[in-house]
Specification:
About 50% of the residues lie in helices and about 15% in strands. The protein is an alpha+beta fold. About 5% of the residues have low confidence.
Length: about 160
């Protein structure tokens, strides 16, 4: 059913954006972590999303157009697994920040300390983008809920 499929798509996006916000908060909380269990400074993490749509849009569109050309009724998406997932969480490979602080316990022999490759401004912007995407999906869910309520009222 296309209506339920729409709900699933928005729900998967909400889950993915929640994961993204959790990773951003982890990055922010480790802005000054110079020593991890692995021995080096904290490394910024990034979330990679992937569409769960099994067919590329171009192929799906051409199939739908060819179906309509032979008189088959166009319906909703047949793929029940449409949406988005978190494919993986990767580490940012950009350089660490080097700060001269010879009194720091993690300073090297030259007095430099390696700090994480995270920047508060980048994390703030990423958090704002994730929050806006989350809000957009909430709005879509509310619109679908309102349409369902209106459809039920019409049926009475």
């Amino acid at each position: 059913m296309a209506f339920l499929n729409s709900l699933n798509i928005s729900a998967s996006a909400l889950t993915a954006e929640k994961t993204r916000l959790n990773i951003i908060s982890e990055n922010v909380s480790n802005l000054d972590t110079t020593r991890t269990e692995d021995g080096g400074p904290y490394t910024r993490k990034l979330v990679v999303f992937q569409s769960t749509e099994s067919k590329p849009f171009r192929r799906l569109l051409s199939e739908r157009l060819s179906d309509s050309a032979v008189g088959v009724k166009l319906g909703g998406l047949k793929n029940e697994e449409a949406g988005v997932i978190v494919k993986e969480i990767v580490e940012d490979r950009s350089d660490y920040k080097r700060v001269y602080d010879p009194d720091h316990p993690d300073a090297d022999e030259n007095g430099y300390v390696l700090y994480p490759n995270t920047e508060l401004i980048k994390e703030t912007v990423d958090a704002m983008a994730a929050t806006r995407a989350y809000q957009a999906n909430i709005t879509a869910l509310n619109a679908m809920k309102a349409m369902a309520q209106n459809a039920l009222e019409i049926g009475q």
